[in-house]
DNA sequence: TTTGTCCATGTGAACGTGAACATCGATCGG
DNA sequence: CCGATCGATGTTCACGTTCACATGGACAAA
């Protein structure tokens, strides 16, 4: 229960005006930092606001300006480090600019759920939208709904008319794979993220690019769901063939799951199999063995997304072409290749 | 860039009324599901709305009803699993009830930052507030700001006039500690969370209760910051004395850091030292050794918080006394006690 | 028939704010 | 010294919705 000291209704701009002995418009001007107000008047108005504990009514303001000062974020996180960090950064950055953030979280990736969440956000009068749920389907839905606000996504789908944050996931994945190749690995397996995630697709592409360039045998990637549990499961499956010396996982969670499976089977990492992940979650350096992975600046991603979006919203587009390039962090989970001991 | 097919301004309730050949009030009634509307009329209005792609203006509605259908969440997460999961659940639950969620994230725990974030949220006309940043300071600030909306926190501070979600962290910590005691450990160290976190305090209390009840020596708890890095650091420090056989960490991240330090020093877990964490993050079962920890239903926490808050908002309080009791999950990181080999 | 009640709908006002325009005095250039 | 300009402030209106109340017709009870 909370206190309810409310007597009548909240004080309005007119109450302040009356107390300060000015017109309501003058109060409005003070509120909005208008210039031609005498210092003395401004002072008087401020005191009146203070005395009445006046708080501007956002609804009234939004009604008359048709600007809600709110942006929407469509996300799909179940507590994962990456998206959560980016969202936190988005909130900070938006607040910094006086904007509010409304988040809608995707519980499932069914088209119905996506549409429902999106409708929810759009019913709210948001000025712009950040799409942190880079699933292909989301963009299809987005395209079909004729969104009438600017929106920014994490990665361009190629089609669609919006700004995309340029994070070079392909380069990151490529660097990770190249690292393994440089270590002498010739049989590398990729455990990818869900097929319909744009990020998963980009990482897979980077992997394939590197493998093809090096003229290595192409193992068919395994499609996972980003979870450590899946990594564990995939690791067990992979060991049945054992026709590889390294695994590049689409994210750190799956990488840890893989290492768990290898450990269970008595297979040494990196002695027998090298493992590389993607994301550089805080635990990456504390697991055993410390995980070689691709570091991403999630906070930076969030901040850039906000800058890009608010640029569009204000009609002064910001240059967002400067790519964010993730960097490889080499740790103990990757090492020189050994002979393949599998059946192949 | 986004398309801008907007000609004039968005269609209003009156435009719909004109097209349907009724009064604006009839449209409003259809919108709000009022009863006494002829089916045929309702149908005609619906078609007109469809034809004009009419979307109700939230600001206008909020202005006249003085209900924003928005709740605020004050959080303090940097991507950690627990809070992020709860927030995701809050969003789902709120959306389910037609509510929007505005989140403000605490970048630092300085009083200034707290006040700033809180002011931001309260300037927005939220109907209620969920405090997911259970730091003592936050409540002090809250108390000092004379909040005029209902709010719900994760844990009662004892003082303050609000609803608190009853999660029995004390019981969880107690169970974890008792588990170690049952295994024969007599020298148990607690690596706690930041002193000003209510959760950290509760977990420490649970630990101390169990230790005192068992009449064991009380090691002074080490105050950490929830991070794996700190756990690693603390582990190194602890090994200098080695006057314990088990560690109970305030959360899983620190527990993993501790195990990392022990591993580096060649100390076997659980052979020489047992480790228990708190939270049951998804990686807990995949690290080496799999971590014994206390499982928390973060999603449930979020859902309950929303139910509790909306109950207050609607003036029909929900019974929230039913405690959420975390459960111990026993894995390989804890085992029977061995003799203390340290100096003590 | 008359009166009252209920249903379906309409009319007018109000919510709190900012934009556009109006006003009034002071200052300035010629 | 007079019109022009500018600074400081006031007046009126519109934003899109819901609320309180009004209207008119159908139907039942008297």
Can you summarize this structure?
Two copies of one chain form a homodimer. Chain A is of the alpha/beta class.
Name the structural class of chain A.
Answer: alpha/beta
CATH class of the largest domain in chain A: Alpha Beta
Please, what is the CATH homologous superfamily of the largest domain in chain A?
Answer: Response regulator
CATH architectural label of the largest domain in chain A:
3-Layer(aba) Sandwich
Which percent bin holds the helix content of chain A?
Answer: 40-55%
Number of helices of chain A: 12
Q: What is the terminal separation of chain A in angstroms?
A: 68 Å
Strand count of chain A: 11
Using the alpha-carbon principal axes, give the shape of chain A.
elongated
Quaternary structure: homodimer
The greatest inter-chain interface is formed by: A-B, 74 and 75 residues
CATH fold-level assignment of the largest domain in chain A: Rossmann fold
As for the number of domains of chain A, it is 3
Low-confidence stretches of chain A: 1-7
Q: Could you tell me the strand content of chain A as a percent range?
A: 5-15%
Report on the biggest sheet of chain A.
5 strands, parallel
GO molecular function (chains A, B): DNA-binding transcription factor activity; transcription cis-regulatory region binding
InterPro entries (chains A, B): HTH_LacI, LacI/GalR-like_sensor, Lambda_DNA-bd_dom_sf, Peripla_BP_I
Domain HTH lacI-type (chains A, B): 11-65
Protein name (chains A, B): LacI family DNA-binding transcriptional regulator
